[in-house]
């Protein structure tokens, strides 16, 4: 039976060439967060020869390129999103849809998400355009699946975790990670947060100090001002934003000292392949950014997350990624104690990854898509 031709919309992880990008261009082309490239890459790598187009292409162009829409998804389920326009576009394209990695965003699991009417319409387009009677939405975790059910579309979703979890085709990745977790790290990289979350300020400062003391790296993902730091655009970024970052990350440094620190330690990546190559230089990656930790794990480097909301906590717990809630960190973090806050269970990670990959592959096969061999190896 001939396979369907997949069209990945608004999820091209190879869209950026290697000419120098301004921070603004990187911010725009990665969808406002370089971590988006992780799940885009994971999904594209899981399919054989997908076509990648922008949602802004004409419906006829999209229909001419393939038979089914594949959407790499993130935390679209929340009141912060307004997806009415996207819903109208999906309706006009009028093709079957699968979406992978959808997450609900709330402060805690005790809260139900609230959706803008346009976002609810977008979810309805996804749920009602399944290519078969099998679920066509891969949810990040049980909380998201529960929220989708409360919104009336429970039969459309199954838990797959994030497709970035399947980038590495080594079924024994967990054993490699366990060996790394058994060692004391010498060089530590940080998946850096943003300078707007007051309750994380002390932790972010401590992480920045660990970078300095271990000759590590400060890898930024989100916030234009953070990417500007990594691109060394000190002279053109807004002075109040520069001061905001300095006072949040290194309040004891002078502005000149802070600029010098960023020039040495701050990095931003628009392509996950060099990103993963880069983190292999380090013994441990830690921070408040999930995909920064996940890319390290897929590169075989021990990593962990510090969670402050349901989004990160759900992904880590679903995929057995080491995680600690920031409220449980009751002493200053140092290079010597930081790994004490995280536990890694290689057997649980391996079995969970195999199970989630099975659910992911089931969605792809039910949609009559050709699954890449590297993903199928994880089922063995």
Description:
Keywords: Transferase. This is Polysaccharide pyruvyl transferase family protein. It holds the Pfam family PS_pyruv_trans. By secondary structure, the chain is α/β, with parallel strands linked by helices. The chain has helices at 23-29, 36-45, 59-65, 84-93, 117-128, 142-150, 173-181, 201-213, 224-230, 239-249, 255-265, 272-279, 290-298, 310-319, 346-366, 373-376, and strands spanning 6-9, 51-53, 68-72, 97-102, 137-139, 157-159, 188-191, 217-219, 266-267, 284-287, 303-307, 323-325. It has two domains: 6-167 and 352-379, no CATH class; 173-344, Rossmann fold (3-Layer(aba) Sandwich), CATH 3.40.50. The strands form two sheets. Strands 2-1-3-4-5-6 form a six-stranded parallel β-sheet, sandwiched between helices. The radius of gyration is 20 Å and the shape is globular. The model has no long low-confidence stretch (mean pLDDT 96).
Question: What does the main sheet amount to?
Answer: 6 strands, parallel
Structural class estimated from helices and strands: alpha/beta
Q: Please provide the count of β strands.
A: 12
Query: How confident is the prediction overall: mean pLDDT?
Result: 96
Q: From N to C, what is the helix and strand string? A: EHHEHEHEHEHEHEHEHHHEHEHEHEHH
Tally of separate helices:
16
- Strand arrangement, largest sheet? 2-1-3-4-5-6
Radius of gyration: 20 Å
């Amino acid at each position: 039976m001939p396979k369907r031709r997949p069209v990945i919309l608004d999820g091209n992880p190879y869209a950026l060439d290697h000419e120098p990008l301004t921070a603004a261009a990187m911010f725009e082309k990665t969808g406002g967060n370089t971590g988006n490239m992780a799940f885009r890459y994971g999904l594209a790598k899981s399919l054989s020869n997908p076509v990648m187009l922008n949602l802004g292409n004409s419906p006829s162009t999209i229909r001419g390129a393939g038979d089914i829409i594949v959407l790499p998804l993130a935390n679209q389920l929340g009141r912060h999103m307004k997806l009415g326009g996207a819903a109208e576009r999906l309706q006009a394209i009028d093709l079957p849809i699968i979406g992978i990695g959808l997450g609900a965003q709330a402060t805690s699991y005790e809260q139900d998400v609230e959706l803008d009417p346009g976002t609810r319409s977008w979810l309805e387009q996804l749920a009602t355009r399944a290519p078969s009677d099998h679920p066509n939405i891969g949810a990040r975790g049980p909380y998201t699946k529960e929220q989708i059910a409360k919104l009336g579309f429970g039969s459309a979703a199954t838990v797959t975790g994030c497709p970035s979890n399947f980038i590495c085709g080594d079924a024994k990745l967990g054993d490699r990670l366990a060996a790394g977790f058994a060692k004391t790290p010498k060089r530590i990289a940080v998946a850096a947060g943003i300078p707007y979350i007051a309750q994380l300020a002390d932790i972010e400062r401590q992480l920045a100090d660990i970078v300095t003391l271990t000759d590590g790296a400060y890898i930024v993902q989100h916030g234009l001002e953070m990417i500007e730091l990594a691109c060394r655009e000190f002279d053109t970024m807004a002075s109040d934003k520069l001061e905001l970052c300095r006072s949040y990350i290194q309040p004891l440094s002078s502005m000149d000292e802070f600029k010098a620190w960023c020039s040495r330690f701050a990095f931003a990546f628009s392509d996950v392949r060099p990103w993963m190559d880069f983190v292999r230089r380090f013994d441990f990656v830690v921070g408040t950014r999930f995909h920064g930790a996940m890319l390290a794990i897929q590169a075989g480097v021990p990593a962990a997350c510090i969670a402050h909301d349901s989004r990160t906590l759900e992904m880590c717990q679903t995929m057995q990624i080491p995680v600690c809630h920031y409220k449980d960190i009751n002493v200053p973090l140092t290079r010597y104690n930081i790994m004490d806050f995280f536990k890694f269970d290689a057997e649980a990670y391996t079995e969970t990854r195999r199970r989630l990959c099975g659910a992911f592959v089931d969605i792809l096969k039910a949609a009559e898509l050709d699954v890449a061999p590297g993903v199928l190896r994880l089922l063995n």
